[in-house]
Amino acid sequence: xxxxxxxxxxxLSGEAVMNDRWRVLLLLFLGTxxxxxxxxxxxxxxxxxxxxxxxxxxAMGALLSAFFWTYVVFQIPAGYVVDxxxxxxxxxxxxxxxxxxxxxxxxxHSFSQLFILRIILGIAExxxxxxxxxxxxxxxxxxxxxxxxxxxxxxxxxxxxxxxFFGGLLLERYSWRVLFISTGLGxxxxxxxxxxxxxxxxxxxxxxxxxxxxxxxxWKRLFxxxxxxAIAIGSFLYAYCWNLCLAxxxxxxxxxxxxxxxxxxxxxALPLVIMAVMSPLGGRGADLLIVGSRxxxxxxxxxxxxxxxxxxxxxxVLIVRTSAGLMGILAVSFLGLGLASANxxxxxxTICPPSxxxxxxxxxxxxxxxxxxxxxxxxGWLISRTKSFSLAIISASLCLLTAAVVFxxxxxxxxxxxxxxxxxCAA
Length: 427
Hints:
Helix content is 79%, strand content 0%. It is globular, with a radius of gyration of 21 Å. The chain contains 17 helices and no strands. The chain has a single domain, classed as Growth Hormone, Chain: A (Up-down Bundle). It has helices spanning 14-53, 57-73, 75-84, 87-105, 111-125, 128-139, 146-173, 176-186, 191-197, 216-222, 226-255, 261-290, 296-311, 323-351, 357-386, 390-410, 413-426. The chain is mostly helical and 427 residues long.
C-alpha cells in the first residue's frame, strides 16, 4: 500500500484544508483509542494480577493509581509543549514511548516493576488529551467544535470498550502477559500513517500557535475567578466517577457478580460503546443549537449538567439483581455520561482563546486526573474494609450530582470575557 504525498502549502485549496483537518482528527481519534486500550489493560488484568502476586484490593488500587501520579504532574508541561511545538513530533514521540512501555509490562515479574512501568506510562500519555483538544480549538470554529470534540473524546471511551471486549477474550484464552505485549506492539502500526500522512504545511499553512507568556501575576488573577475553581471542582468530581468505572467495574463484574473474563469484557464494553456513540452526537446536538444563539456557553453547560444527572443513575446497579437489569442501568448511566462528555471539554474551548488552549486543557485534565489518582486507591480501600462495592458506587453517583450543581451555578457567560481579556493582556 502506498501513500500519496499531501499537497504543498501553495497548492492547498479551501476544500483540501477542510478535508485535511478531518484526516488529522481521524488519526488523533485512532491514537486516542489506542491510548485508552493501553491505559485500561491493567483494570482488566486486576483479578489475575491479584491472584498471581497475592495482593489485596487495596494494593491493586495503589497500582492502578500509579499511572496518574506522573500523568497529573506532567499535564501542564505537556500542555506547554503542545502550545509551542509541532504536533507531529510531540504526539508521535509520546505514542512510541507509551506503546513500548505497555508492551514491556507483559514481561514484568514483580509488583514493583509494574509500578515503575505505570509511572512511565503516565508521563508518555500526558500530551494526548491536550494535543487532541488544542487541535480542535485551532482548526474548527466555535459553532462546530462540539462534533470534532465529541469524536476526539469518543476515542478515550472506545479505547477501554474495545480493550475490554478483546482483552477479556485474550485473558480467557491466554494470559495477562499476552494482553499487554500484543496490544503494546500491535499499536505501533499506527505510526505508519501518522508519519506518512502528517504534514504541518497542510494545516492552514500555519506554524504551531505560541502560548502567551503568562506570568505569575496573570495566573494568580485567573485563579481568583470562580469559573476556574468551578471547572476544577466539577472536573475532579466527574473524573472521580469516570475513573472509578474504568478502574473497578471489570473487577466488580468478576468479584461481586461472578462473571467470567469473557462476560466481564462484554459487560464492560457495551456501556462504553453507548457512551462513545453518544459523545459526538451530544456535541453535534449542542453545535446545532448554538447556531444563531447568543450564548453557546449556556447550551453546552445544559448538556453537561443533564448528562451528569442521568449518569448518576449508576447507583441503581446496587439494586438490580438480573444481568439484563444490570446492563439496562449501565446503558442509561453511560448514555448520560456520553451526553456530557464532548460538551464538558467544549466548555473550556469556548471559554479560552486559542493561544492558551493547550495549557488550559492540560490544567483541566490534570485536575481531573487527580481524581484518577485517588479513585482507585479510595475504592480499593473501601472494598478491603467493607468487603463490598456499595459505598464506592454510591460515592461515585453523588460526585456526578454535585458536579452538575457546581457547573450550573458557577460557570457564567461573563467569565468568558474576563478570561479572554486577561489572556490578551498577558500576551
